[in-house]
Structures are given as C-alpha cells and as structure tokens.
Amino acid sequence: MIPIAEPSLGKEELNLLTKAFKSGWISSKGEFIEKFENEFARYCGRKYGVAVSNGTVALHLALVALDIGKRDEVITPDLTFIATANAVTYTGAKPIFVDSHPDYWCIDPEKIEEKISKKTKAIIPVHLYGHPCDMDPILDIAEDNNLYLIEDAAEAHGAEYKGKKVGSFGDISCFSFYGNKIITTGEGGICLTDDKELSEKMRLLKDHGMNPHKRYWHEIVGYNYRMTNLQAAIGLAQLKKINKFIKKKRQIARLYEEGLRDLSDKGKITLHPEMSWAKNVYWMYSILINTEFGVSRDKLIAELEKKGIESRPFFYPINEMPPYKLKDKFKIAYMLSRSGINLPSQSNLSKRDIKFIVSKIDDKN
Ligand SMILES: Cc1ncc(COP(=O)(O)O)c(C=O)c1O
Predict the structure, then answer these.
(1) Strands across the sheet containing 160-161
(2) What's the alpha-carbon Rg for the chain, to the nearest Å?
(3) Which of 204, 218, 325, 335 is the one with CA 20 to 30 A from 355?
(4) SS3 state at 361
(5) Does 181 participate in catalysis according to the annotation?
(6) Is 21 in the pocket of ligand 1 (CB under 6 A)?
(7) What is the pTM of this model?
(8) Residue 214 Cα, ligand 1 centroid: separation in angstroms?
C-alpha cells in the first residue's frame, strides 16, 4: 500500500530522543522543550513559542488567552478540519462559517465582512492543505473591525504569503505536529506570538494556571496542555530537516503536475493551485475531480485503494455535520468537498510511485 502520509524519522530523531530518555526528563520539563519553542518560533519569524500537546489545544489556548468565550463569535472557514471549529466551541463561543475561495480553496476574504456582527471577536484563517490564505485583505478586515487574528497553520508549516512565512501574521498562530504533518512530534502543537504578555498568559494557562514563581499557587483555572521533552526532542530533529521536507513536497507536486497536466488541460481535473503571491508547501497534494472525468471522485478513491494507493476525500463542510448544522449552504466549500481528493504526499515517495499513481488515475478516465 502506498500510504497517503508517513512520518520521515531517522537517526537524528532517535539520537535526541535517546538523549531525552537517558536524561530521565521524559515529561514536560527538560532541555528540549524551550529549545524547540525558540527554534520553531525563529523559523517562522516570531518572538515567542509556547509548545503544547496538540494542535487542537493550541487553538483553544490561543482563544482563551485572548479572552474569547460565551456570547462571542469567531469567524472560521466552512471547509477545514473540525478542530478549528471545535476549539471555538470549547470556549463557549460560536464559530461563524465563511465559504472558500474557488481559486485556492482557503477562506474567501470577500465573504468575511458580511458575517461580522457586534459579537465577533476574532477570525481564524486556515492555510488549507499547504496553501496560504490571502492575508492582506484578512489583516485589513481584522484591523478595521478590531478583531483578533489567529492563524491555523496546522497544515502549512513553512508556506509563504508574499515571501513571509505563515504563522507570522496572527496575534497568535497555531500549528499541529501530528504524525502526518510536515514536521511531527507524534502528537504536539505550538502557539506563536510576538506579544510577550500573551506568551506568558499562554504559558500560565497551559500549566494549570500555576504561578511560575510560586509553586502550587494557581492564579487562574488553567489546563494541562504541556508538551513532553520526548516530543520536543523529536521536533528539534525534525525542524533541522524542515526545508528538505518542503523541497521534497514541492518536487512531488511538480511531478504530479507533469503527470496530470493532460487531464487538467482537458478540464477533467483541477490541479492543486499555487497563487502568484503564494508558496504552497503541498502538505497533501490535492486535485479536484471534475464532472468531465470518467468516474466519480468516490469511485476513483475506491479504485485507487484496490491498486494499493491510499487517498482521502476532502473534509466535509463543517456546517453540514450534526454539531454545526446550518440551513445555509456554502457553494464553493460544497463543490470542493465533493470533488477534492488528497493524494499520497509523504516525502519518502519515489518518482516511480508517483508515475504509478498518475497512471492509475489516468486509467480511470
Ligand atoms: C487545519 C487543522 N487545524 C487543527 C488541527 C488539529 O491538530 P491536532 O490533530 O494536532 O490536534 C488539524 C489537524 O490535524 C488541522 O488540519
């Protein structure tokens, strides 16, 4: 089976992990956590990093640190992984969904303002499947309406908007290091910010609200959202390779493009976009199966599986699912959700694998 994603772990990860193991610091104290926080923040061009146990709690921590809660509203894209909306719900606030842009699949900035109400406190743009959001108009909207900006960069480590890395735009930006992400710590996440006070507040909140200078004195109700030293050790080794991983992801994208160009020229599929202002890191190389294609998207996924190729359908629009069901339909999110497919994209993929995958997509046409 060619898997859709697979971590790339080597002796560097094992060495640092062994070092952490041998030190006895296997929980959330130890030398690697702060190093990982600092180095990841520096990689993204930010001042402070607060490492946490996964990307979902990174979003929750960011929202709580910004005092978002009951009676507030937070704007999110309709087409994203459920964690973006769930983190808002955990705070008691309500996620308000916005449709996707047809050209690059992330939140459509032109459709944000109509969703802003007196209750709106923040926008969470999500850099979906490796492509950055169009940040300039989103930044303007946030500023004009006095809203916080929290970037959900779980799927786009190292992606760039007009030459600037994602994760460097928001009041707080959040990443996931789950096993299928561009770099992984197994489970894990981080919040980045340039605001010292916010970073200190997040640090307090992630450790049960315990005063760092007075043990077991709890200033506020916090959480246990701590990352372990073992995770951070793996993360540090991964971070050394991040540019190599991204280069490989982009090479994989070029190979898919070459192989699938003919189908795309005939309008049968749509290739994974990269806008002129974007550097896409193609977390998962994705295509749209248009109605002109020989078989349906779901049939293609089943056929690929029979040939030993794992693929995934796009996320469902969140507003279609029971916890968030709404009457409105978001046209573009719906279209993307029904036609999109993520293809194998792990950095260990060979040219031969991609040729094989392309030929099996071609066969079905
Ligand atoms: C867009 C997005 N946000 C948040 C998350 C949550 O991250 P985690 O799985 O580490 O909790 C994920 C991913 O897995 C994601 O894809």
Answers:
(1) 164-165, 160-161, 278-279
(2) 21
(3) 335
(4) helix
(5) yes
(6) no
(7) 0.98
(8) 34
